[in-house]
Every structure is written in structure tokens, then in C-alpha cells.
């Protein structure tokens, strides 16, 4: 500071030293040319404004988070393994708050800007920080411990650890650099270290590779927060773009992509589901190499699926379309960010040669294809493609098996439907039988009645009146044998 | 990744891409080379899209990684993603299919434009067992290959003909290129990898090294 004012004193006009507000006091460069009094006023104002803004931002974030929480509570069907369990959620929330405090202080530094981080990520905001924030202390500590244990077996282990730690710490001061510069730094470090290791191990590349893997694991676990999807890039925008794009392409079928996979076979659909899970899981890993491993696992499942269907070794002609199909079905979270992160910070020897590198390249191809996809590449006319894209029409599906996850349910439903139809037929038959029985019964009754009638007619019923008189009132009238009876006794008078 | 090291006991790692239309027999070619299989009904290999082969050429170890690419026309635009950083390219056509040869010509043009002369090109006429149905003349193919600085080979994956030679020859050429590159760079004893992103600044003392010229027998 003193140095500065000295220099000013030498060649600057007296008037320029005065407060720029023109209050007559001397100004100070540190206060943007204002005098102490004017600066305090100015500063208070902006500070007040910023505090207000910050409050508003904090409130909005809180609301968004609550909304996201509510959404998540309802829509638990989202196929995202990355979602932290609810117990962790609370923890994360408090962490989020402490982060807000951090940003608050950040606002007061001159170059502060509002973090655009989660303004435009409604669905993603939830899963974005969770794996990193909640796991951070635990995981980094464990990785460090593992790293140290690993290095103990090596002679220059201590030296390697010291260098890695120093470098990792120095990265914290480079936060303002662009992603490419950061990547450059890390890659240079890898390069230097592996060169030295090559000299040390006398060119045994396998051992160098194994050390480099551990170095990468240690460094990237620590640097993940700072360098994954940094604010200085438009990775996030690209993430959203590809996510939207894949969503818009939901109607693409296996047949259009000529995927040599038959999901009717249970084993195949099982592999397809596993491949989808793996490619989604990639997002939850922190170390580039672990992410690559997820892609490789996904690819192996794809090969299994193709092999089961085609019964021959899968070539790239089969593999790429299937991978594209898997990516379309999975819509992996933060796809572009992950690809960029791996490209920037993965150990180059893993990425450029090697099997992992091959599958990663194919994933990049799949993404590039999906981005540029048009009607022609699906053997559709431009009109058809536009119609499907705008959602005005949907392609006719030969069978209702759009996704492997549903296909099992669909086949079950079809089975049930078949069963129901069978039941219906049988019931119809029973009803038929019942009706026949009814009519038979009616016929039988008629027949019986008829016979009875017949019999009755043939043998008419002769009624023999009962022998004893029944009605005492008609004793005299109807009495046929009255004649045989002696004449009724007449009352006689006896005169005695 | 180019040469996996300088002189002496270092191992070379080469990446080779397979380009060509679908159905020209790319897959059969590599399967034959790496596993000596053709149309085997008994599957032991899951996939034929990424295969590796370890070789020993004139006392030097070579790791060959062969990258198959999707040959369908609609994936043509993805080529650059596949072939960047590769040391060699094998461009396969079917001798009974004129179109597939045209495709090869397109690939050559593109590769030369994008990668210059750093990449070793092999043009391969596959299925010579179907000589009777040949539609691409030998003279035309070989003449073309020479005109673009590529080598031409005749192979048959079915009869296992010409494949071994093709890969061996390619490896030797790639080694020469790698060695020439090292010399140009100075003795890059520690230069285990070439630049990942175009320009790499070697910060030690590259000037002195360049002046020294080709000195491979370094520490």
C-alpha cells in the first residue's frame, strides 16, 4: 500500500488525489478513489442492497428446495439411484444452509456474482449436490487413508503423497480459472508425475498405471466439487439441452435404430435394464475412472444382450446403435457434465487407449448422434420426423413394448388378458350349458305334465262318494235309502 | 496415444481404427487376426469391437488396440471421434462391391484432411475368396492406394489369407513413424505420450534436444 501511494505522489496531479465525489477530502485508490467518508456511505448502500438480494436468493432457494422435496416425495418413481435417502436429506439441507453463508461472504468480495448454479435446474437441483456434499468428509478421509496405505508399499510413496497433496491444495487458489486451464494444470501434473514414475520404475508401464490410478482417485475425490460442472462453463446448459432432446425423442423405437436386440427374451431385457442402470449410475461416482468403469459395465451388458439375441460376437455395427438406444432409454443425469469431466480430468492413458477409452468414445459418439439425429438417420421422412418430434403423432408400434422396464409388465398384462378371454369363453360355455339345462328341465316338466294328462285321460278318475253321510243338514233330502228306513217316530202323547 | 515410449525396452502402444462400410467383413478380419476364428458357432468372444494384440517385432514389444467402428452410413459423421489420436487406419472394402470401394476413397480423403500424414493407411480388399465375383479391379485399387500414400492388401478372412501380413506390415510402419516422430522431437526418452490436445510445451530443454537429432540410445 505504501509503495503505491509513493508512486502516486510522484507523478500525479494534486487534484487527482482528491475524493472523486468532490467533497474536498483526499481519496484513496483502495476505496475506488473516494475518501473514507464517501466510501463508507457508498459501501453501506451496496452492501445493504446485496444483503437484501442475498436474502431474496436464500428464500428462493429454500422454496425451490422444498418444492423439489415435495416433488420427490410424490414422484418417487424416478429411476434415479443417485437420490439420497431422506435421512440424508435433512443433513443436506443444513449443509446447504451453511453453504449459503459461504456465498454470503463471497458476495462481499468485489468480483462476486450471483451463482447461476441452480436457477434453471428444477428436477436436477435435488440430486445435484447430494452425493458430493453429504459424503464429502467421510469419503475424502477414507480415500486419503487408502492412498497413504497404498503408497506405503512404494519407496517414493512419501514424495508422491506430498506432491499430490500440495498440488491438490494449490488447485483451491485456481478456482477462478476456466475449466480448460484447470484441466491443463491437472493433465500437466499427471504427465510430469507419470514421466518421473516411468524413470523410477524403469519403464514398467503397468506399475506406473496402477500408481497413476491411485493418484487420480485421491486427487479427483478431493477436487470433485470444484471442478465438476464448474460455473465458468456452459456444461450445465448442455446437460439440460441433451436431457430435453432425449425426452423429445422418446418415441424412437428399436426398429428405427436397427438395434439387434430382442427384448422379448427375458435374459436380454434383463441385460438391457442392467445396462441402463449402469449408465445412470455413472453420475454418482466422483473419480473419472470409476465413471469409466460404469460405462464399461454398461457396455458389457449390451454385448451380453446382443450375443443372446444374435448368437455371434457383437461388432461395432451392432454395439453403437444399441448403446444409442440405451442412452435414449436411460436419459442419464448430467450426461454432458460427466463426459466433460472425464475428458478433462481422467488419466489420458486410460482414456485414449484401452478398453475403457473405447467404450467412452462410443458413448461420446452416441451423444453426438443423438444431438444431430434427424429423420434420415432413422429412415423416416422429414414430415414424419417433424410430426413425431412435435408430438402430433406417434409411430405405430407393432406391439406395445416401448421400454424394457414396461415390457415385463406388458407381457404379464397380456397373459392376464389371455387368461381373462379364456375365462370368458368358458363362462359362455357354462351359461350355454345352463340354458340348455333349463330348457331341458322345462321340456321334462312339460313332458311329465303331458304324460300325467294322458294317464288321467285314459284312466278318468272315478269319485266314490264317501259311505257315511257328511252333511247333517241334508239328511232328509239326499238320503236315498230313506225308503228303507222306518217312518219317523211320531211323538205320542201318553195320558196316563 | 502414440508410441508408448522411446527406444530400447519401451513398449509401443498403437491405436488402429477399422473403417469401412457394414458387411465388408471388418469384424471377421479382426476376429480372424486376434482369435483365429471365422464364423465360429461356438461363441467364446463376447464382442469383436475392441480387441487387443500383443506383438514382438524385432525385439520390441507392441501393444495393438484395434477399434472397430460402426460402418452404417448414418454413423459416418461420427468418424472423427473414433479416429482421433490413432496411429493407423485399416480401410476395408469388399472386392465384390464397388460402392464399398467408393466409401474407402471418401474415408481416405477425410483422414488425410484431418490427420495429415501422421496416420498410416492400409487399404484392404477383403473377400478375395470370391475372386469370380470381383467388381473392383486390382489395378484400380492398387493404383489408387499408391496415389494417396497408402498400402494395399488383399485378404480373405474366410481363408485366413493376407491378414497376418497386413497387421505386421502396419505395425512396422507405425513404429517407423513413431521413431521418426521421436527423432523430430529430439530424443524423447521420457516423452511417453504425445500431446493430448494439439500443442504440448515441453518445458525442460527442448531446444538442445532438437539440435541433437536422432539419438535413440538414451538413458
Automatic annotation (TrEMBL), chain A:
<dbReference type="Pfam" id="PF02204">
    <property type="entry name" value="VPS9"/>
</dbReference>
<dbReference type="GO" id="GO:0008270">
    <property type="term" value="F:zinc ion binding"/>
</dbReference>
<feature type="domain" description="VPS9">
    <location>
        <begin position="236"/>
        <end position="379"/>
    </location>
</feature>
<dbReference type="GO" id="GO:0016192">
    <property type="term" value="P:vesicle-mediated transport"/>
</dbReference>
<dbReference type="GO" id="GO:0030139">
    <property type="term" value="C:endocytic vesicle"/>
</dbReference>
<keyword id="KW-0863">Zinc-finger</keyword>
<dbReference type="GO" id="GO:0003677">
    <property type="term" value="F:DNA binding"/>
</dbReference>
<dbReference type="InterPro" id="IPR002653">
    <property type="entry name" value="Znf_A20"/>
</dbReference>
<keyword id="KW-0862">Zinc</keyword>
<dbReference type="InterPro" id="IPR037191">
    <property type="entry name" value="VPS9_dom_sf"/>
</dbReference>
<dbReference type="GO" id="GO:0005829">
    <property type="term" value="C:cytosol"/>
</dbReference>
<dbReference type="InterPro" id="IPR041545">
    <property type="entry name" value="DUF5601"/>
</dbReference>
<feature type="domain" description="A20-type">
    <location>
        <begin position="13"/>
        <end position="47"/>
    </location>
</feature>
<dbReference type="GO" id="GO:0031267">
    <property type="term" value="F:small GTPase binding"/>
</dbReference>
<dbReference type="Pfam" id="PF01754">
    <property type="entry name" value="zf-A20"/>
</dbReference>
<feature type="region of interest" description="Disordered">
    <location>
        <begin position="106"/>
        <end position="139"/>
    </location>
</feature>
<protein>
    <submittedName>
        <fullName>Rab5 GDP/GTP exchange factor-like</fullName>
    </submittedName>
</protein>
<dbReference type="Pfam" id="PF18151">
    <property type="entry name" value="DUF5601"/>
</dbReference>
<dbReference type="InterPro" id="IPR045046">
    <property type="entry name" value="Vps9-like"/>
</dbReference>
<feature type="region of interest" description="Disordered">
    <location>
        <begin position="461"/>
        <end position="496"/>
    </location>
</feature>
<dbReference type="GO" id="GO:0005085">
    <property type="term" value="F:guanyl-nucleotide exchange factor activity"/>
</dbReference>
<keyword id="KW-0479">Metal-binding</keyword>
From TrEMBL, chain B:
<keyword id="KW-0636">Prenylation</keyword>
<keyword id="KW-0813">Transport</keyword>
<dbReference type="InterPro" id="IPR001806">
    <property type="entry name" value="Small_GTPase"/>
</dbReference>
<keyword id="KW-0342">GTP-binding</keyword>
<dbReference type="GO" id="GO:0015031">
    <property type="term" value="P:protein transport"/>
</dbReference>
<dbReference type="GO" id="GO:0032482">
    <property type="term" value="P:Rab protein signal transduction"/>
</dbReference>
<dbReference type="GO" id="GO:0003924">
    <property type="term" value="F:GTPase activity"/>
</dbReference>
<dbReference type="InterPro" id="IPR027417">
    <property type="entry name" value="P-loop_NTPase"/>
</dbReference>
<keyword id="KW-0653">Protein transport</keyword>
<keyword id="KW-0547">Nucleotide-binding</keyword>
<keyword id="KW-0472">Membrane</keyword>
<comment type="similarity">
    <text>Belongs to the small GTPase superfamily. Rab family.</text>
</comment>
<dbReference type="Pfam" id="PF00071">
    <property type="entry name" value="Ras"/>
</dbReference>
<keyword id="KW-0449">Lipoprotein</keyword>
<dbReference type="InterPro" id="IPR041833">
    <property type="entry name" value="Rab21"/>
</dbReference>
<dbReference type="InterPro" id="IPR005225">
    <property type="entry name" value="Small_GTP-bd"/>
</dbReference>
<feature type="compositionally biased region" description="Polar residues">
    <location>
        <begin position="188"/>
        <end position="197"/>
    </location>
</feature>
<protein>
    <recommendedName>
        <fullName>Ras-related protein Rab-21</fullName>
    </recommendedName>
</protein>
<dbReference type="GO" id="GO:0032154">
    <property type="term" value="C:cleavage furrow"/>
</dbReference>
<dbReference type="GO" id="GO:0005525">
    <property type="term" value="F:GTP binding"/>
</dbReference>
<feature type="region of interest" description="Disordered">
    <location>
        <begin position="181"/>
        <end position="203"/>
    </location>
</feature>
<dbReference type="GO" id="GO:0005789">
    <property type="term" value="C:endoplasmic reticulum membrane"/>
</dbReference>
